[in-house]
Structure formats: C-alpha cells, structure tokens
Amino acid sequence: MASQTPVADTIRQKITTALQPTTFEIHNDSHLHAHHEPMKGVTSRETHFRLVITSEAFQSKMQPARHRLVYSLLKDELAQESGIHALQLRTMTPEEEAKRQAQEATAE
After folding, report:
1. How many domains does the chain have?
2. Is residue 1 in a domain?
3. What is the rounded distance in angstroms from the CA atom of residue 102 to the CA atom of residue 23?
4. Where are the alpha helices (H) located in the chain, listed in sequence order?
5. String of b and e for 44-71 (b: at least 16 CB within 10 Å)?
6. What residue numbers bound the domain in which 21 lies?
C-alpha cells in the first residue's frame, strides 16, 4: 500500500540517515497555506513543512550553514513541481537544545 505521506517519509529518512538527530520533529503545515495564490491547482497535501532538528552535525556551524546542509539533503524534493514549496527550519546542537529547555523551565 502506498504511503499517505511520501514527502514526509522521504524527509524523515534523509534527515535521520544523514544527521542522526537526537530530536527530530516534522510538522506538515500545508493545510495552513492551501488557499495561497501559488498553491492554486496544486493537489499535493505535502508542500509546507516545519522541521525541528537537534544534531551533533550542526556543531560549529552557524545557522545559514546548518540550513544549507538541510536544503542540500532535500534538494530533489525542493526542486519537484509538486514537492516542497516552503521549509521552515529550527536547527540546534544538543547543547543549544538543553539550554533552551532550561530557559523554558525557569520561565514557567
């Protein structure tokens, strides 16, 4: 049986294999953008994604380099006409994630 989420499945496989994340979230936000003009006539329900990735692979890389790394992994999906239209990224090292969690805990 064919997957109902082939683009998300591909994203998960590529990111997991290449970056071995300690935290990885995929949020399909396509339904929030379906009414936008560029989406008229597009039948894919997998066009807009928000990813949260924590990985050692981001160590010593600035945000633009981290994002380029993710974009390069997903270049085929970004290039396809019915592929990814928008990709929002939150990329962290394990230390940055721990610091963020500590800050959130003290803010509560």
Report:
1. 1
2. no
3. 16
4. 6-19, 63-73, 75-79, 94-107
5. bebbbbebbbbbebbeeeeeeebeebbe
6. 6-107
Alpha-carbon gap, residue 29 to 49, rounded angstroms: 6
Instruction: Specify if 37 maps to a domain.
Output: yes
Nearest partner of 42 among 88, 84, 87, 89, judged by Cα: 84
Q: pLDDT tens digits, residue range 28-51?
A: 988 664 554 444 554 457 788 999
CATH number at 98 reads 3.30.300.90
pLDDT tens digits, one per residue of 61-108 = 999 999 999 999 999 999 987 778 889 999 999 999 999 999 999 987
